[in-house]
Amino acid sequence: MAENKNRDVASAILPLVGGAANVTSVAHCMTRLRLGLADRSLVRDEELRALPDVMGVVEDDTYQIVLGPGKVARVTPEFEELVEEGRAAAPAAGAHPVTADELAAQGAELKAARKEKNATPFKLFLRRIANIFVPLIPALIGCGIIAGLNGLLINLEWLPGITPALAAIASGFMALIAVFVGYNTAKEFGGTPILGGAVAAIIVFPGVANIEAFGQKLSPGQGGVLGALGAAVLAVYVEKWCRKWVPEAVDVLVTPTVTVLVSGLVTIFGLMYVAGEVSTGIGTAANWLLDNTGAFAGLVLGGLFLPLVMLGLHQALIPIHTTLIEQQGYTVLLPILAMAGAGQVGCAIAVFKRLKRNKSIRTTIKSALPAGFLGVGEPLIYGVSLPLGRPFVTACVGGAAGGAFVGLFSMLGDKVGSTAIGPSGWALFPLLDGNKGLGTTAAIYGGGLLVGYVVGFLATYFFGFSKQMLIDLNADVDAGESAAARAEEGPSAPHTDPTKEPAQV
Q: Where is the PTS EIIB type-1 domain (predicted)?
């Protein structure tokens, strides 16, 4: 039954994005179906947003349809199958009015125009970095939860015969994460992925402990994910140089050898040391920031995270989180940033209370709040706070208050961290870790969420609406068609224009 439902969702979406012939690529992340489109003008945005299973849409290099965690992974295969079936049937039906060449030309034109207008080299670079690390998140989450469970069992002195096995399961991925980063980096930058992984594997090889560089012995893992990223990028450039100059007859022998040899030597006698110093600096800076300016740092980070997401700049934090997890076992930044979602929840509850006669917005909030409590913020952002304007700002105020609360305890010596990146809200509880007991860590994080909820609610309730907004948005939706249309369009019409960047909360 579930499979049929997922196919029904895919069937409803496909014609609204221009049909199978208009879809050039299909992919998904944790919450979104990401589509490459030949002709953006064929998409019927309003009808798409009106679908019950669609939480919102975001435009970027790809057209992104927010379906939520779990669901998107089930809908995507059904959507891909429908696209393939549609493409196979299209020549016989002759339904599409233009040729494939014409569609490709239109798509290239639209893509070029959009990139020229919105893309900057810095943002494009950050997206590439995100593309390297985002595929690793499921493994980080799974291993992080297992590590937390193992720690609990050890503290309770339960199942002593099982805990060593759980420790191995939880730690195996992190011990080799540099290899996965190298593989994904080479793939993202246009090289041979396995060569990127091979060069990055040098960093975690135990034998590097016998090598001296910059007057000191190297240690396995030195440089971590940053070193792996740099090594793989170097490998891509060496490989491309070889492809250009090495004769085809000996390419299969020479290119891999030269790529691994040159990149490996530079990694051992340069990158491992430099990246190790940078990684150490990141950990030291993060700890210093929270130890000395915790409340203020939490206020700024919690309050500005959602605007950073809107600008796409949050992607720069991904390698920092991963480096902290690799170094310390947890990232102290994520629980603070997660407070932004708490502000959104408090804001949404206040909107629900203030707009008592707007059934459309209240229905959206009722359906989106459970996901919001679990840390999935897109439905509340794109369906409620951002389109309304002022509530988005007051939601950020709630996030700032929650961040200041968690940051204050860091100043007092109680650090709260997460063993993985990705989840937030209540979903982060199984991943919590810190320098004190699990009970203290969970209590501080829970207190931060509560502060975010309360301040987000109060700020939105008292300052989130002008008098005119309340008049316009609180109209009786049963009084006439125009009022109903206005209520329905209010939370959805501005979805794409103000954002332009993907948001992962």
A: 7-89
